[in-house]
Write a structure and sequence with these properties.
Blueprint lengths: L1 E8 L9 E4 L9 E11 L1 H7 L2 E10 L4 E8 L11 E4 L12 E5 L3 E3 L6 H5 L2 H14 L12 E5 L4 H12 L3 E5 L3 H10 L3 E3 L5 H6 L6 E6 L3 H11 E9 L10 H5 L3 E4 L4 H4 L7 H14 L7 E5 L4 H12 L6 E5 L3
Parallel strand pairs: 9-10, 9-12, 10-11, 12-13, 13-14, 15-16
Antiparallel strand pairs: 1-2, 1-4, 3-5, 3-7, 3-16, 5-6, 6-8
Length: 338
């Protein structure tokens, strides 16, 4: 089967940072599905894993943690899917990734593909949907069915992949969404997705929040630059409020203001359930199916903003380079093998 892989961790400008390769097709066992991958999406985790470091893989490593495709075969213990089913999922960071024609994934973290979307549009959703859903409804404790309606949520990094789906999920839960964006195209993007207010994360946040008639916000989602936005976040979160971050910090985060407010910081990493084989990992199957229902009901718009064909190393390197530059809007998707 065709795949895109690496053996060394190199700058993305190096042709060997990601290269085309032929690999043996895997076979499913246990609760695994073998999926014929039709489309993939690229996420920051891809370039973070691929980042240059002193390490050499003994056998080719395949990256990629977003896919939409068709179940080709199933392991003997599979109960949720059958061959021919169309699926979408984000996979498991401890296993080979989705940048291959055929891919093994545990059924518990797979959802049915939305019927109203083609494979390319569907591939844009899994990782970011799981991340935003877990961030809001599991980590921040917001009620998915609207019991926190009218509370304020500040999303720092509203135009990225997670922010793009996060705005829509927050609006479905009835929240007042304040999203950050800085360029004309990203400002328009978040407005079109339903943000009630847009502020510029490149300018001081407090004056912009106060211009909305607010002194604090009820919830904050750090979807960009935790280090750079931490002081403003601690200042703006309401007393006894909660902050969720998906971006690791590189410097110590002062907790003095958070302590005085009895405020909380929680982390979201969508691979936690698969990485640690938590007993509740079936929740990712359920939430992906719920996302698919919302999409098919017209309640969620696509977040794919750039579909590239075909899936190959050259196009993946270009996608990594664009994401690393930090200027992408929505999701980058690759479709089709040639």
């Amino acid at each position: 089967m065709k795949a895109v892989a690496l053996t060394r961790y190199l700058p993305i400008e190096d042709p060997l940072s990601l290269f085309d390769i032929e690999m043996d097709r895997p076979e499913p066992v246990g609760h695994d599905l073998l999926v014929a991958v039709n489309a993939i999406a690229v996420n920051p985790v891809d370039y973070k894993v691929r980042a240059p470091k002193d390490k050499i893989e003994e056998s080719p490593k395949v990256l990629g943690w977003d896919a939409a495709g068709v179940v080709e075969a199933v392991g003997p213990e599979v109960t949720l899917f059958k061959p021919g089913d169309e699926v979408f999922y984000a996979g498991d960071i401890t296993r080979q990734g989705t940048n291959s024609q055929f891919h093994l994934v545990e059924e518990a973290i797979v959802g049915r593909k939305p019927q109203s979307l083609d494979f390319a549009q569907a591939a844009a959703f899994p990782l970011t949907s799981i991340t935003a859903y877990e961030a809001f409804f599991d980590r921040l404790g917001i009620d998915v069915d609207g019991r926190n309606a009218k509370e304020t949520l500040l999303i720092i990094g509203g135009a990225g992949g997670v922010g793009s789906i996060g705005i829509q999920l927050a609006k479905l839960a009835g929240l007042t969404v304040i999203a950050t964006a800085s360029r004309p195209e990203s400002i328009q993007w978040v407005r079109d997705l339903g943000a009630d207010h847009v502020i510029n994360h490149r300018e001081p946040l407090r004056p912009q929040i106060e211009s909305l008639g607010l002194s604090h916000v009820d919830h904050i989602a750090l979807f960009n630059d935790t280090d750079g936005h931490w002081d403003a976040t601690a200042d703006l979160i309401r007393p006894q409020g909660k902050v969720v971050s998906i971006v690791e910090n590189e410097r110590p985060l002062s907790q003095s203001v958070m302590k005085s407010k009895s405020a909380s910081l929680t982390w979201e990493f969508m691979f936690t359930r698969s990485m640690f084989q938590t007993p509740d990992r079936i929740e990712q199957h359920h939430l992906l199916n719920r996302i698919a229902d919302w999409i098919d009901a017209g309640k969620i718009k696509t977040t794919a903003n750039n579909v590239v064909r075909p899936i190959n190393a050259e196009n993946l390197r270009a996608a990594h380079k664009q994401l690393e530059a930090g200027r992408s809007v929505g999701k980058i998707v690759l479709e089709g093998w040639h």
